[in-house]
Design goal:
This protein is α+β, with helices and mostly antiparallel strands. Helices cover about 40% and strands about 20% of the residues. A hairpin with a 6-residue loop joins strand 1 and strand 2. The C terminus is likely disordered.
């Protein structure tokens, strides 16, 4: 009787179970890494927006709520809303990412910063009003 070389069905089944268990642990971590990368993109865009707003203010002595008037281009899939009660006194900006619908980052400068330190970027769950995030860390 000749002996065949190769793997038995049980050996292949064990390998498949181990691979399934490893992938079951890896997929949630991968999603978390992606969400953190998207949050970092929103924070980076808000930091770049802050620099562009300050350059605009230095030139025009007022802030802008129009991103096309600024030397600023957001990352793909990042939406930024800029609001202001007084364009001379400050602005507030909220960034959301299309691939992370439950998360938003916000920053504010001047009078619109309210209880936050001016220029601080905070991320958290989307607020129902769509405005800036609550002051709790």
């Amino acid at each position: 009787m000749t002996r065949r070389s190769g793997f038995t069905f049980i050996e292949l089944l064990v390998v498949m179970v181990v691979m399934g268990a490893l992938s079951a642990m890896a997929v949630p971590r991968y999603r978390d890494y992606k969400a953190r990368a998207y949050a970092a993109a929103m924070k980076s865009d808000l930091g770049t927006l802050r620099t562009a707003e300050e350059a605009h203010w230095a030139e025009h002595m007022r802030y802008s709520t129009d991103t096309t008037a600024l030397d600023f281009r957001p990352t793909t899939d990042v939406d930024i809303r800029i609001t202001s009660q007084d364009l001379i006194g400050g602005y507030a900006a909220v960034a959301t990412h299309r691939r992370v619908p439950g998360l938003q980052c916000s920053t504010a400068m001047g009078r619109d910063a309210a209880a936050l330190e001016s220029g601080t970027i905070r991320c958290g769950p989307v607020t129902s009003s769509g405005g800036t995030l609550p002051t709790a860390p």
